[in-house]
Amino acid sequence: MPRYFEGSLAPPKGRFAVCVSRFNAFVTEELLRGALDALLRHGVADEDIDVFRVPGAFELAGLARRVAEQGGYVGVICLGAVIRGGTPHFEYISSEVARGIGTLALSSQCAISFGVLTCDTVEQAIERSGAKAGNKGWEAAVACIEMVNLNSKVSHGLLKGRLTAVEGKKK
């Protein structure tokens, strides 16, 4: 019988960094509010959260890498909004942002979450930052908490042969 492992939403130990783009601030500020609310509601102390602001979404991956490499953080949450315009700029930026943050997630020792909206319209971005479609900043923070807890289980148990599976869970 296979064993199943997953993170939890228990209050994690450690500090979180939230890297947020200032471009499209009418959207990203709502994403930030959602992420901070999720962290606080899940037991992360206010003093264990640092917010880093970058000019635009393109700069998120570079800063997030530097923050993660400095150590001291168990999770880094990346928030931004890229909204399609009339030029190919959207494709270039959204692709590179996703690639950069994804590459960082593969190589980082801490949890990295992706909360960057890539929307066709302003309306879609507003819907995903707290209106009809929920708040993707909240979702990115919750995903980061879960991954911090799962990473902790793997780091402290699996390699030593002591990790216990989630009882009764079958996928």
Structure description:
It is a single chain. The protein has one domain: 3-Layer(aba) Sandwich (Rossmann fold). Helix content is about 45%, strand content about 20%. The protein contains 5 helices and 4 strands; from the N terminus they run βαβαβαβαα. α3 links the parallel β3 (about 75-85) and β4. α2 packs parallel to α3. The longest helix is centred in the last third of the chain and has 21 residues, at about 135-155. The chain is globular, with a radius of gyration of 17 Å.
Furnish the topology, listing elements before pairings.
Blueprint: E1 15-21, H1 25-41, E2 49-54, H2 60-70, E3 73-83, H3 89-107, E4 111-119, H4 122-128, H5 136-156
Parallel strand pairs: 1-2, 1-3, 3-4
Averaging pLDDT over every residue, what do you get? 92
Number of helices: 5
Helix-strand pattern, N to C?
A: EHEHEHEHH
- Rounded Rg: 17 Å
The CATH architecture comes to: 3-Layer(aba) Sandwich
Count every beta strand, where a strand is a DSSP E run of 2 or more residues.
Answer: 4
Ranges where pLDDT stays below 50 over 5 or more residues in a row are none
- What gross morphology would you assign? globular
> How big a fraction of the residues is strand?
15-25%
